Amino acid sequence: MPEINPQRLMNDLRHLRTIGQYGTGVIRPAFSTKDMEARQWLLDRMSAAGLKTFMDGVGNVFGRSPNPGRGILIGSHTDTQPQGGWLDGSLGVLYGLEIIRALAEDRRTVHFAVDMASWSDEEGTYMSMLGSRSFCDMLTRDDMERAQNHLTAQPLSAALEQAGLTGMPTTTMDPERYVAYLEAHVEQGPHLEAQGNHLGVVTAIVGIRTFRLTFKGQQNHAGTTPMEYRKDAGIALIELVHDINREFTTLAGPRTVWTIGYVHLEPGSPSVVPGRAEMLLQFRDTDDKILDALESKTIRIVEEAHKKGPVDIDLAAVPPQCETAGMDETVQVCLAAAAETHAPGRWIRMPSGAGHDAQILAQRLPAGMLFVPSIGGISHDIAEDTAEEDIVRGCRALATATETLLRHPNPV
Amino acid sequence: MPEINPQRLMNDLRHLRTIGQYGTGVIRPAFSTKDMEARQWLLDRMSAAGLKTFMDGVGNVFGRSPNPGRGILIGSHTDTQPQGGWLDGSLGVLYGLEIIRALAEDRRTVHFAVDMASWSDEEGTYMSMLGSRSFCDMLTRDDMERAQNHLTAQPLSAALEQAGLTGMPTTTMDPERYVAYLEAHVEQGPHLEAQGNHLGVVTAIVGIRTFRLTFKGQQNHAGTTPMEYRKDAGIALIELVHDINREFTTLAGPRTVWTIGYVHLEPGSPSVVPGRAEMLLQFRDTDDKILDALESKTIRIVEEAHKKGPVDIDLAAVPPQCETAGMDETVQVCLAAAAETHAPGRWIRMPSGAGHDAQILAQRLPAGMLFVPSIGGISHDIAEDTAEEDIVRGCRALATATETLLRHPNPV
Questions:
Q1: A46, B10, B371, B411: most buried, per Cβ within 10 A?
Q2: Would you list the domain boundaries of chain A?
Q3: What percent of chain B lies above the pLDDT cut of 90?
Q4: pLDDT in tens, B230-242
Q5: B379 vs A151: CB contact, 8 Å cut-off?
Q6: Residue B270: which of A150, A190, A267 has the nearest Cβ?
Q7: What is the maximum alpha-carbon separation in chain B?
């Protein structure tokens, strides 16, 4: 079994946190100065590990093993949420680097081909899982042109130009090269910790549907416009969300989640009746039937509120939507065996409520994911953290699974 | 009767609109570059009209007649909402300028003392009616230090410094100088137009109470945090506003209004459960008992929601609150007589749903206000407008009332 170096892994994780550090977390949204600085640092570390490295035209950082033959691709992301946790994405990327180093240091595994990637914009500052979608050749020119920063409306093309990526080639996958794609990640939820488990073998990744709702009323003076004359876009939004909350509760499955993470009223002054309002509604489940039911209900609620007036309401899907993705059975078996080796009786199979690049890669390669616990279930917050022993255990388990898959490409 | 010059008035109004013009409206929030440019232009126009002019340390633009004796002060404001109408404030300021010119051109009135002011930040970018409060000596050092931009949180002191006002003296009123304060304004509501009236004599100005509600939950991942684990600050805000709307409806009088003009969720990402949310709630009435009832209800709703959890909610009054202000009876009689002269049978007495500098001045001087119709009742929007004949009629009526008050300081 290859021996990973826990200290080296932890040093890399801690160094990466210093780039864009904010409290105990990080601010490295896709294509920001700090995101690009982290990618440059990663390229250097990967070169030092003997990989052939490059950054492609959408910001994917790629390290290719000099070894020939079919190999494993390990990846995740180093971009973050507006205020993200230090391990979200970085953990999986640096697991890849550490496993590559560990395999190279062991004469029994030195010939194995393991490539690694840090996919760009997994968090969807411009487009969720942009890098892995591009690598899997799933993006049209139209998708690229429409993509824009969901907070500032800056077009993706302008962000790429600012990051110095305009005109650089993009990479797409050679499926012949790989036995499987592996990704490790912090769970980002409370389940592992709550049940005293140390590892999670992912069975499927939720589908995600996101909608933009736009409300058009009449901006007016908050003192002189009688209540019955108002076309208040903000109140229309608030009452619609109230209805959605009530209706979704009756349609939801045990793991369904829905979120209104963004609300904006215009012009945003205490003395002005909002004339325009906007919100993003997102819901997730591994069951497509539930997703369909929530979508139909949303359409119906919007239609009824729009018809009732006095505010016009527009509903638009925010592309690209994320389809529900099952993880490969064989890869799951290998990850389960590794989990049992490193956390006997203390691991579970579980779905992923979060979207991950693995759900994109799963459409092209046998893919699998391994979770480590999140302390308090906290994620997408600077307070996100994982116990050091769980970080190290996760890397060991992923190294074992990697070795198994390469030694026995068809283990079942 | 002094003869105002309609063309000169309209030219001034149209020129002022070009400073910060945005579509048919203007963007001149307090202490912005465009606001200061407009003040500078106004100083020049006032000097040309023979006034002694200066700008004081809080941005008030003041023009003093060289004539001795007790006079009239005419004022309003030239700062705007984030996207404001072209006449909101500007109308009253340029009425003052035109009336001063008209009186000076008539040998029967050339000796009258009429001063004018453009008060700073009436719209409350930093503090509503900052300039008139300062002029009436109602501000403590603490008020000044606490004041900040309600959108950007920039302190008032920084805005004053940027505008080059740091260290300049502030002016306060000499009450012996004035018989009365007069302010004309667009109605900003639908009542005059809907009833076919051309002028409104204001009886009282609404009290305004504004509250900031802050919601503290737990920021978390929108995919992995089960609904029952969430402390969603955004949902807590939305459900609380829903409750306020329902309860306020039962407590409201015929002219009560309440507004949620500002809502902010943090961090504002579609994939993150909001950990913090903030909103501004404002309500207005001329009846203090209704204001008290709405305030008590708000406190109760917040307390109950806070106790129920899981989100902490904090309620804070946004100082300074605006007290209900009655207009002076004698001044009302003069304005009513002038209204009957210029719009026989086509004027009404009415309360003001909007706050105005006159409500501050009313605490120190006999004060009165005159309204002209707003087309479609639209205000605090770039679409705000008033028919040219109504603009001119309003100026004539205010000139008549000014002359009456100066000729017969005690007309009743």
A1: B371
A2: 6-205+325-407, 207-317
A3: 90
A4: 999 999 999 999 9
A5: no
A6: A150
A7: 81
Q: Which residue of A has its CA nearest to B374?
A: A224
The edge-to-edge listing of strands for the beta sheet with A207-216 is A257-266, A276-285, A207-216, A312-317
Q: Cβ separation of B245 and A235 shorter than 8 Å?
A: yes
CATH number for the A6-205+325-407 domain, one of 3.30.565.10, 3.40.630.10, 3.30.420.40, 3.40.710.10? 3.40.630.10
Instruction: Tell me what pLDDT residue A224 has.
Output: 86
**pLDDT digits 0-9 by tens, B347-389:** 999 999 999 999 999 999 999 999 999 999 988 889 999 999 9
Report d(CA A145, CA A141) in Å as an integer: 6
Long-range contacts of B387-392, Cβ-Cβ distance < 8 Å, separation of 24 or more: B388/B10, B390/B198, B391/B9, B391/B10, B391/B13, B391/B87, B391/B91, B392/B4, B392/B6, B392/B9, B392/B10
Residues of B in contact with A123 (CB under 8 A): 269, 271
**B270 → closest Cβ in A210, A222, A232:** A210
Q: Which pLDDT score is estimated for A260?
A: 98
CA distance B71 to chain A (A): 31
* pLDDT at site A221: 87
Q: Does domain B6-206+324-407 have CATH number 3.40.630.10?
A: yes
Q: Is B220 left (phi over 0), alpha (psi -120 to 50) or beta?
A: beta
The 10s digit of each residue's pLDDT in A358-380 is: 999 999 999 999 999 999 998 88
Rounded to a whole number, what is the distance in Å from the CA of A158 to chain B's nearest CA? 20
| HEC per residue, chain A | CCCCCHHHHHHHHHHHHHCCEECCEECCCCCCHHHHHHHHHHHHHHHHCCCEEEECCCCCEEEECCCCCCEEEEEEECCCCCCECCCCCHHHHHHHHHHHHHHHCCCCCCCCCEEEEEECCCCCCCCCCHHHHHHCCCCCHHHHHHCECCCCCCEHHHHHHHCCCCCCCCCCCCHHHEEEEEEEEECCCCHHHHCCCCEEEEEEECEEEEEEEEEECECEECCCCCHHHCECHHHHHHHHHHHHHHHHHHHCCCCCEEEEEEEEEECCCCCEECCEEEEEEEEEECCHHHHHHHHHHHHHHHHHHHHHCCCEEEEEECCCCECCEECCHHHHHHHHHHHHHHCCCCEEEEEECCCCHHHHHCCCCCEEEEEECCHHHCCCCCCCCCCHHHHHHHHHHHHHHHHHHHHCCCCC
User: Mean of the pLDDT values across residues B63-78?
Assistant: 96
Q: Which residues in chain A touch residue B256, judged by CB atoms under 8 angstroms apart?
A: 227
Instruction: Find which of B28, B218, B269 to mutate to test the A interface (most A CBs within 10 Å of its CB).
Output: B269
Give residue A323's pLDDT band: very low, low, confident or very high (50, 70, 90).
confident
Structure tokens at A192: 């592992």
Instruction: Provide, rounded to the nearest whole percent, the portion of chain B with pLDDT above 70.
Output: 99
> pLDDT tens digit string along A130-174?
999 999 999 999 999 999 998 899 999 999 999 999 999 999 999
What is the rounded distance in angstroms from the CA atom of residue B248 to the CA atom of residue B258?
8
- pTM of the predicted model, to two decimals? 0.77
C-alpha to C-alpha distance for B222 and A88, rounded to whole angstroms: 14
Q: Which of chain A's residues have a Cβ under 8 Å away from the Cβ of B380?
A: 219-222, 269, 271-273
Whether residue A369 contacts residue A326, with contact meaning beta carbons closer than 8 Å, is answered with no
Q: Is the ipTM of this complex over 0.90?
A: no
Are A270 and B223 within 8 A, CB to CB? no
Q: Does domain B207-317 have CATH number 3.30.70.360?
A: yes
**What is the structure's pLDDT at A412?**
45
Size of interface A-B (CB pairs under 8 A): 249
